[in-house]
Amino acid sequence: MKTKKKDFWESIGSPKYALAPMVDHSDLPFRLLCRKYKTELTYTQMYNVNSLTTEDVFEKTIIKEINELDYPCFIQFASHDPEILLKSAKFIEKKTPCIDLNLGCPQKIAKNGHYGSFLLDHPDEVYKIIGYLCNNNLKCGVSCKIRLFNNLEKSYELCKKLEELGINCLCIHGRTKEEIKEKIGKCNWDSIKIIKSLLNIPIIANGGIEKFDDVIKCFDYTKCDCVMSGEKLLENPSFFSGEIYDIDNIAIEYINLWKGFNLNYINDNLHIVRGHLFKMFYSAMQKEPKFNQMLAKSNNLDDILNVCFQIKEMRKNDNLESKFGWYRRYRDKINKKEYINGNMDDKYNDFNEEIIGDFFQ
Ligand SMILES: Cc1cc2nc3c(=O)[nH]c(=O)nc-3n(C[C@H](O)[C@H](O)[C@H](O)COP(=O)(O)O)c2cc1C
Asked: I need a labelling partner for 207 at 20 to 30 A (CA). Which of 50, 152, 240, 303 fits?
């Protein structure tokens, strides 16, 4: 089994740097942008496949988000239904090297839908799903993205069982499902390290990455095969390059990537484009709030590009490091104990459940 799993990882190029799956933020142009700056593995956002039951619907939602330039890209599913998951996997098994089961989402929407991290409270259901996916001759691999339990032994048992059932690799977010909002704690690399040392499948470590030095430390400490980052890449898509590029130019590059797609696709996704720019330009908008309004009102790429150029002009003499800020937006407040439950945006508030619509019912 060890060799087979190693073959899988080698067949996708043994990636070391992964972009996390993020609802409304894992768009194809963003994935391509991150790849240009050393990201080697990407994921789609999670798709709640319960509502995507025909190949036609798959074509219009997931398949159009896949592109050969974005390889390897894992497609993430959220569901608790083995039949639906297998059927969904069959639709795309030749278009992705791997489907990933979301076992980490801590949101209310996941609780209501009985998926994500809430499935971890029912390990037998998880094992049934994974056993079913791994034993039905899928042409692609199967992976999971989990959160930890409070108890290391329980976390290890889960991971070991998932390995025995045949998953090809495993992503561990080193926090529990309770560690969100004001309870977000330090990422538990100790557990990731121990689990990695006891398993034979490739492990992707997620959480606690803010500086490039953290990436190096995470590899050294946990001995993981790959490091995944979410929020840091939202702030700085060139993060994994280890170099400091001008975020104002990167934002313009992002818009230009969108220009390569057809108008309908662009118009359907303008909220996603703006969502990214609010993060890349967080500091600029703190400095000059009018840009916030301007961006919110922009309803085509040229207007958005115009905002980018104005921000670039405003900050032309600024130190490149000083242009960042979004990643620390709530972390600093937590440190200063200013965080009051419900009064501040938390990292998952970017999940706009209205925009997500049918997918995430
Ligand atoms: C806006 C947003 C959307 C997310 N959506 C997903 C998702 O669809 N699937 C998933 O497994 N995790 C999702 N996550 C969690 C991230 O993949 C990642 O595990 C988490 O942000 C911790 O990594 P980080 O500290 O590097 O950001 C999301 C996180 C954010 C900030």
From this structure: 50
Residue owning the nearest CA to atom 25 of ligand 1? 207
Give the Cα separation of 301 and 303 in Å (integer). Answer: 5
Question: How many Cα neighbours within 13 Å face the side chain of 35?
Answer: 20
Per-residue tokens: 66: 């896949």
Confidence of residue 204 (pLDDT cuts 50, 70, 90): very high
- Give tens-digit pLDDT for 234-244: 999 999 999 99
Which is the closest atom of ligand 1 to the Cα of 228? Answer: 26
H or E segment and range at residue 226:
strand 226-229
Element spanning 346, H or E: none
**Ligand 1 atom index nearest CA of 206:** 23
Q: The pTM is what?
A: 0.92
Read off the pLDDT of each residue in 199-205 and give the average, rounded to a whole number: 98
Mean pLDDT of the chain: 90
User: Ligand 1 center to residue 316 CA distance, Å?
Assistant: 32
Q: Is the pLDDT at 340 greater than 80, yes or no?
A: no
- Output the pLDDT for position 333: 65
Three-state DSSP class for 227? Answer: strand
CA–CA separation, 97 and 161 (whole Å): 22
Ligand 1 binding residues, C-beta < 6 A = 20-23, 25, 45-46, 76, 102, 104-105, 145, 173, 206-207, 209, 229-232, 347-348, 350-351
In 10 A of CB 157, how many CB atoms? 13
User: How far does the centroid of ligand 1 lie from the alpha carbon of residue 42, in Å?
Assistant: 12
* Number of Cβ within a 10 Å radius of residue 263: 10
Q: Which residues are catalytic?
A: 105
- Indicate the angle between helix axes 28-36 and 247-258, nearest 10 degrees: 130
- Using the Cα atoms of residue 353, residue 48, residue 58 and residue 23 in order, give the sign of their dihedral: positive
In a 13 Å sphere around the CA of 259, the CA atoms on its Cβ side amount to: 11
The stretches of 38-120 forming alpha helices (DSSP H) are 55-61, 82-92, 108-113
d(CA 270, CA 304): 9
